[in-house]
């Protein structure tokens, strides 16, 4: 992975000239990165293959097509014997325990033995990661403080309610951040909803408790929390135990018996309740990691924000932790809208809320966030995708479960190869992974700092078929930004169980068939007399019963009562209220509960990754930092800068503005005091990709202006009549800067540094 400023690159003997003198390679590996610095000499013979020698390639964009960025080229650098000598035994150690876990599972070993082996596997993987990081040259590190200063100073975003001291985990987006976010959302809608013909919905953020009880969120989103007894600082109990135990196990002063006990704790911690956690904290005398103070007993803490609907406070609800449930509960209406046909996809863009115990890392972990989620409903027996052939050749960096278990780095494969080999479960999941990668590239994520990591079996929910996270490498490490999961039929089945409303689709049979049926026919006269207003609800609930449930009903009413569950309670049915009927019928369709393929996007995390990957510093002037944001999503597409304050230039400036408006291009006029060079620097800093300068020559007929490319600082001269269409073409990607330079005369500016 290349990090550093862009601009000139040419080969000269065995040295790299120009701003890439401090270029570094970031190598994708097990779960972190290795960094190799190339200060002067070519690294392991790779440079000649990567960079062309012609002078025409000077000042190229980092992502220019002129430079062949092949992930495999960078991964081959790991063949260096000096590095492999250090990593090989560590990789072998990871593989040893990966093989052991496979063997234990194949032999049906007790879960506790497998869990212990998993703990050791994770410890060995961590050691491998630490060794890789130790190989990184210090000068290759990313200066996050400079980026954060820029983002705060130019108000991309800042902590909410800052004048009141701020609230952790909540952020307000300023003009630039808001525009960047909206541009990303607009592009997401075009890339998925419009191009794929999805059904878009916008559901309420307030979700009744029964909905989230059925989905498992009420129970699954509850964590145990401990507090510092003196200052009240909160910690998630299982994380505190895990981190403290790992620290103790790495301490040579801790006796082997204690380390063995801690290994047992780590293997079983996922099943611990509050009493178990308190016992562990007490037995090992665990303290606050910040102050060393004592800790309280674990307290239950739900990660969802509770609220009430209505004035009485009796109707419990939550702010939704995800947008998906709104789609699931509307499945029946969406299926009707799609004329009862599968497959189809529904999408939603909206806010999610999670009351994180200790939010941190800026936009990476927050309490309120924007999500873009897709629920693709498909026949469980046929997960092929009609358009899969279009993306089958698309290459992805796949970090499969096998790679992780064997201590091997991610591997580049086409998604077609991965599906054919069974690495990715099916075509539909593979299609969305490829489309996900294409979207991330569009909005400006570095392709060489992106990978898809497969969930290990102990990470996936019991109902999931396959899960791949799109992870982006930032200064915080590998960050999960998109989840791509095959959730099977779980969600629709859970809501059916809770409501007795069938959430199924009909599948046409190739040939009609005769089937036996058994139904529970209600005696409405008797039921109506006893239950009155509830009679219709009872009739509806009986119609929803499966054949197995009707058989169970028949057995129970022969000897007593049958308790029928309704949406808001249950009723007792007697024998005289029900007639069980049996028979045969010819059917042309069968009912199926669709499987769901779910891509889920965290826009805030993607946005931060884009900003970090776009951060640059001018060669020779590290104080002059700027953002090289992809023009497609840049908050402002173009700046308009008069070279000096003069009324004669006003008509020309107005003409340029009119051309920008004609093409729906956002622009910013900077006619403030100061040299043109300083004004260029101000607009570069906030990620404006193009600048239009009205200068001394502009007054000559026909009016002309210069168009400046912020990243390379190069300029071309164009007619005012054409400036709107030229900038629009470069923003939309229909024309590259290199093409523009060939088509229009280059203007040599002497004002950049002034």
TrEMBL record:
NCBIfam families hit by this protein: glyS_dimeric (TIGR00389), PRK04173.1 (NF003211)
Positions of the WHEP-TRS domain: 86-142
Gene Ontology terms, MF aspect: ATP binding; glycine-tRNA ligase activity; transferase activity
Source species of the chain: Pristionchus fissidentatus
Name of the molecule in the record: Glycine--tRNA ligase
Main location: cytoplasm
Residues in Aminoacyl-transfer RNA synthetases class-II family profile domain copies: 143-473
InterPro entries for the chain: aa-tRNA-synt_IIb (IPR002314), aa-tRNA-synth_II (IPR006195), aa-tRNA-synth_II/BPL/LPL (IPR045864), Anticodon-bd (IPR004154), Anticodon-bd_dom_sf (IPR036621), Gly-tRNA_synthase/POLG2 (IPR027031), GlyRS-like_core (IPR033731), tRNA-synt_gly (IPR002315)
Primary enzyme class: ligase
Lineage: Eukaryota, Metazoa, Ecdysozoa, Nematoda, Chromadorea
Catalytic activity: 2 ATP + H(+) = P(1),P(4)-bis(5'-adenosyl) tetraphosphate + diphosphate; tRNA(Gly) + glycine + ATP = glycyl-tRNA(Gly) + AMP + diphosphate
Subunit record text: Homodimer.
Compartments where found: Cytoplasm
EC number in record: 6.1.1.14
UniProt similarity note: Belongs to the class-II aminoacyl-tRNA synthetase family.
GO biological process, one term: mitochondrial glycyl-tRNA aminoacylation
Pfam family, one: WHEP-TRS
């Amino acid at each position: 992975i290349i990090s550093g400023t862009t601009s000139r690159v040419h080969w000269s003997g065995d040295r790299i000239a120009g701003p890439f003198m401090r270029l570094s390679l970031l190598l994708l590996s097990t779960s972190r990165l290795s960094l190799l610095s190339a200060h002067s000499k070519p690294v392991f013979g790779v440079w000649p293959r990567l960079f062309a020698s012609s002078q025409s390639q000077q000042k190229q964009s980092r992502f220019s097509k002129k430079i062949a960025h092949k992930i495999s080229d960078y991964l081959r650098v790991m063949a260096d014997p000096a590095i492999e000598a250090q990593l090989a035994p560590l990789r072998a150690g990871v593989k040893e325990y990966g093989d052991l876990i496979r063997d234990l599972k194949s032999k049906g070993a007790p879960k506790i033995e497998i869990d212990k082996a998993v703990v050791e596997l994770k410890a060995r993987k961590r050691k491998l990661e630490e060794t890789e990081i130790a190989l990184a040259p210090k000068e290759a590190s990313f200066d996050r403080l400079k980026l954060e200063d820029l983002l705060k100073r130019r108000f991309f975003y800042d902590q909410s309610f800052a004048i009141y001291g701020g609230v952790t985990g909540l952020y307000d987006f300023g003009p630039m951040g808001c525009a960047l976010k909206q541009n990303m959302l607009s592009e997401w809608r075009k890339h998925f909803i419009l191009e794929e013909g999805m059904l878009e919905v916008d559901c309420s953020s307030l979700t009744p408790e029964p909905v989230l009880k059925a989905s498992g969120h009420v129970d699954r989103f509850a964590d145990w929390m401990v507090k510092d007894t003196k200052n009240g600082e909160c910690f998630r109990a299982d994380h505190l135990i895990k981190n403290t135990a790992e620290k103790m196990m790495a301490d040579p002063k801790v006796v082997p018996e204690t380390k063995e006990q801690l290994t047992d704790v780590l293997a079983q911690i996922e099943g611990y309740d509050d009493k178990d956690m308190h016992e562990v904290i007490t037995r090992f005398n665990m303290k606050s990691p910040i102050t060393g103070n004592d800790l309280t007993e674990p307290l239950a803490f739900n990660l969802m924000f509770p609220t009430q609907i209505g004035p009485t406070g009796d109707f419990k609800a939550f702010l939704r932790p995800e947008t998906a449930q709104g789609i699931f509960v509307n499945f029946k209406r969406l299926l009707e809208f799609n004329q009862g046909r599968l497959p189809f996809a529904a999408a939603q863009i909206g806010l999610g809320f999670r009351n994180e115990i200790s939010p941190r890392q800026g936009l990476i972990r927050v309490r309120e966030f924007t999500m873009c989620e897709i629920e693709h409903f498909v026949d469980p027996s046929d997960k092929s995708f009609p358009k899969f052939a279009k993306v089958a050749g698309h290459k992805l960096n796949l970090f499969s479960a096998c790679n992780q278990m064997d201590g091997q780095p991610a591997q580049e494969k086409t998604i077609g190869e991965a599906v054919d080999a069974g690495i990715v479960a099916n075509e539909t999941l593979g299609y969305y992974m490829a489309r996900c990668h294409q979207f991330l590239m569009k909005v400006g994520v570095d392709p060489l700092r992106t990978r898809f990591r497969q969930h290990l079996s102990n990470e996936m929910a019991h109902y999931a078929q396959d899960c791949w996270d799109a992870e982006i490498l930032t200064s915080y490490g590998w960050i999960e930004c998109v989840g791509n999961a095959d959730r099977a039929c779980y969600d629709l089945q859970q809501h059916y169980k809770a409501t007795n409303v069938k959430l199924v689709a009909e599948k046409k049979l190739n040939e009609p068939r005769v089937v036996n049926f058994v139904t529970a026919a209600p005696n409405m006269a008797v039921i109506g007399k006893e239950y009155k207003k509830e009679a219709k609800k009872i009739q509806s609930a009986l119609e929803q019963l499966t054949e197995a449930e009707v058989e169970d009903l028949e057995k129970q009413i022969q000897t007593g009562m049958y308790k029928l569950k309704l949406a808001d309670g249950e009723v007792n049915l007697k024998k005289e209220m029900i007639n069980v009927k049996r028979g045969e019928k010819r059917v042309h369709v069968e009912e199926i509960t669709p499987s769901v393929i779910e891509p889920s996007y965290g826009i805030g995390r993607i946005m931060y990754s884009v900003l970090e990957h776009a951060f640059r510093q001018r060669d020779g002037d590290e104080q002059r930092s700027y953002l090289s944001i992809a023009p497609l999503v840049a908050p402002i597409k173009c700046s308009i800068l008069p070279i000096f304050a003069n009324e004669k230039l006003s008509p020309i400036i107005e003409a340029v503005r009119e051309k920008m408006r004609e093409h729906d291009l956002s622009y910013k006029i900077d006619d403030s005091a100061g040299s043109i060079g300083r004004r260029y620097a101000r607009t570069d800093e906030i990620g404006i990709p193009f600048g239009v300068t009205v200068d001394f020559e502009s007054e000559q007929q026909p009016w002309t202006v210069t168009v400046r490319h912020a990243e390379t600082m190069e300029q071309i001269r164009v007619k005012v009549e054409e400036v709107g269409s030229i900038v629009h073409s470069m923003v939309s990607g229909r024309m590259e800067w290199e093409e523009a330079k060939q088509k229009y005369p280059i203007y040599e500016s002497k004002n950049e540094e002034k």
